[in-house]
Design a protein that fits this description.
Blueprint (H helix, E strand, L loop, with lengths): L15 E5 L9 H5 L4 E3 L5 E3 L7 H10 L5 E5 L4 E3 L4
Protein name: Ferredoxin
InterPro entries: ET_Ferredoxin
Cofactor: [4Fe-4S] cluster
Length: 87
């Protein structure tokens, strides 16, 4: 399994943690368009979180919000879910 798939990925330079729920990913790649330094698709077309320098946190949240199936979950470093918003 690639980084961030079905488990949270973190980055020492980022204020967020990211998880892609594999079963929900439909290979729309909107996350890759909005945050190309953070997301890519694996050989099966499932999004994963790249190693290295990520995009800014707000850009990552925008990328998650662009996902048509809400397959991307964003948390702050304290484990509070930022996206999707919890009621």
């Amino acid at each position: 399994m690639m980084n961030g798939q079905n488990k949270f990925a973190s980055n020492k330079d980022s204020k967020v943690r990211i998880k892609v729920i594999n079963e929900l990913c439909i290979s729309a790649a909107t996350c890759v368009i909005h945050a190309p330094n953070t997301f890519d698709l694996d050989e099966d077309g499932i999004a994963y979180v790249k190693e290295g320098t990520w995009d800014e946190a707000q850009q990552i949240i925008t990328a998650a919000a662009s996902c048509p199936t809400t397959a991307i979950i964003i948390e702050d470093l304290d484990g509070n879910q930022i996206y999707p918003e919890v009621n």
